[in-house]
Amino acid sequence: MRLFFSSCFTLLLAAVIGLGATWLTLTRGVAFGSLRIGAWTAWPRTGSVDIDPYARAIVARTGELPIGTGDGVAFYARTDDSGDAFDGRCTFSLTGMTPAARYWTLTLYDPEGRLVANTIGRHGFTSAEIIRDTGGRFAITIGPRARPGNWLPSGGIEKFVLVLRLYDTPIGLASFTSREGPMPAIARKGCS
Amino acid sequence: MIRLTFWILGAILLGGIVHLSTVLAMPEAATQDAYSRLAQLIPVNAVTALAPPNAQNGVMPFMDPAFAVAVCRYDLSGGPLKFTAPVSQAYTSVTFYTRKSVAYYAINDRAAGRRTIELDLMTREQRADLPEEEDVTTADRLIIESPGVTGLIVLRALAPEPGMLAMARRTLAEAKCRREGARG
To answer: Considering CB atoms only, which of A60, A109, A168 is closest to B108?
Structure first.
């Protein structure tokens, strides 16, 4: 009898551990070969046949199509530079420059990858439409209220994700460090 | 006490096996992956423009709203496919995905180096069956080997400014994906 209960306990524990670990890794976005620069993370191998089993499972579960390595690379940010999670009720600033690329786009999503409804119908910027200073640097304000300059509305949602996609870029193919690729800095400016 | 430790160790080991097998089985078990979503929306072996993503819905999550997207859901069981796409003004890319959303090949307009991107898509067996002289005479043809019989060709054209989205969509409308030899 004791053997039976012990076996049941073990099997149950194994199921909890196994399925729990799977759920955690797939929802948190754990994948190998990540490239971290400041608050930004990219998984360049996810866009190639070298995609690891975790990324494969994540992609199958969410239904997204990862950007191909010959096309570009996508950097995801869920927090600012100091590690505070993006909150749609707060205002964040994104400043600086981006690594060399023919075009880039910056898009704001909810955690499930949907666009966020807002009054001006803006979901992101492309490198062609951004307003820059004379040094080629730019500043984007992300927040619930309208701002002058490059304003990206966050719609006041609880959590959001920023995706910076670089198209036709040498990045991701070779080793890459933050010195070669100046990623924009993200800072929180206050909450309403 | 020692017995309990053994049972827990066994549970952790078994849990690890459960974890790895569920992760590996996920692509096979998934019913909402990109191909399954598109299979309900678009015909096979034809280029279909996707509706631009908006806040209410997007065909797939994390779609780039700055791009016009068209997809050819291919099935090579009837023979190789010929894919042609004109290049838009800004930036155009073509990415090939397997049935399980693995991007196995991607090319952009600059790498293609022409006004139109022309590719032949076939399985390894179909490529091996190609007559040899044909392979020589069409040396400038770019042949892509599909790892499986089915998959997706995703064509993306950038609209650098929102006003240019209509133009990008018009460019995509001229893209074709059809059986070799078939006319039209």
So the answer is: A168
